[in-house]
Design a protein that fits this description.
Layout: E1 2-6, H1 9-12, H2 16-28, H3 42-47, E2 56-60, H4 66-73, E3 77-82, H5 85-94, E4 100-102, E5 115-121, H6 132-141, E6 142-153, H7 157-161, H8 163-174, H9 176-181, E7 192-195, H10 197-206, E8 209-217, H11 224-236, E9 244-251
Parallel strand pairs: 2-3, 2-5, 3-4, 5-6
Antiparallel strand pairs: 1-7, 6-9, 8-9
Helix pairs in contact: 2-5
The structure holds S-adenosylmethionine (SAM).
Length: 253
């Protein structure tokens, strides 16, 4: 099932693509520095073993470029692409040697079959038109034996149970009158799709990828007892609580 977590278009008639670029630009503006060592990030455990030989690597939607820097220190030849200029400026100010390109990842400025690896973390779900434009472009620039590692939010068990509440919350957040009560005058401008693992696998297949694994990360559960219960539940319902899911894919023939 594909669930649009936030959709502001109907209410405001805003151009969703341009609006999201503005949201990210504001998100990164004024930040400073990059975290050097990302090996303790839960995301890293989902892709670490897939990067088995040094190669030409693209990060699509790199933000400030923290992963571009980290993956470069591991011997990969990395380029990061993002359409939000402010994030790239943060990265360049911290490390002038990073290869950071301002571009829309649905129209990448690279030749066909350029990359051994493409990684993208929590980026393709923000396109109001769906992720297909990005995924087809990733396939174009990926070498035939290359790997795509692409994460999106997961419609997990808890989100499924809370679906009526999430739908109501979305509806309220998009109403002009409700926003005015909270003192907000600008249109609500954030969009994100959430998929079940099955739906996400099907979307990737339609775009020319064969999914080898879907791994979850980031459920934010801290207490040891809650973690134990969550692991037990996860054995019965895979990816029951994870916020994000990482698909490890190869190009289908
Ligand atoms: C959740 S952030 C991820 C940042 C980075 N990967 C990290 O983990 O630090 C998603 C990024 O994707 C970028 N993005 C979303 N859609 C894009 C598009 N069509 N073209 C280029 N960048 C895009 C946003 O500007 C944002 O910086």
């Amino acid at each position: 099932m594909r669930f649009t977590e936030y959709d502001y278009q109907d209410e405001h008639g805003v151009d969703g693509v341009a609006a999201m670029d503005g949201v990210w630009d504001a998100h990164w503006r004024g930040r400073e520095g990059l975290k050097e060592d990302l090996s303790d990030e839960p995301l890293w455990a989902t892709i670490r073993d897939e990067l088995d030989r040094p190669g030409r690597l693209l990060e699509a939607g790199c933000g400030t470029g923290q992963w571009v820097q980290f993956l470069g220190t591991l011997g990969h030849d990395v380029v990061g692409v993002d359409y939000a200029a402010s994030g790239l400026e943060v990265g360049r100010a911290h490390n002038a040697n990073l290869e950071l390109v301002q571009a829309d990842f649905r129209q990448l400025p690279f030749d066909d079959e350029t990359f051994d690896y493409i990684v993208s973390f929590g980026a393709v779900e923000h396109d109001v038109n769906g992720p297909e434009g990005a995924l087809q472009e990733f396939r174009r620039v990926l070498r035939p034996d290359g790997k795509l590692m692409c994460s999106v939010p997961c419609l997990n068990l808890y989100r499924k149970l809370a679906l009526p509440l999430l739908v109501a919350q979305r509806w309220l957040k998009c109403r002009k009158t409700v926003r005015r009560l909270w003192g907000k005058t600008a249109p609500f401008a954030f969009h994100q799709y959430v998929w079940s693992p099955e739906e996400y696998t099907a979307v990737l297949a339609r775009c020319g990828f064969r999914v080898r694994h879907v791994r979850g990360y980031g459920n934010g559960i801290r207490s040891p007892l809650a973690r134990y219960c969550d692991r037990a539940l996860g054995r019965i319902v895979p990816l029951s609580s994870v916020h994000m899911m990482m698909a490890i894919c190869e190009r289908s023939k």
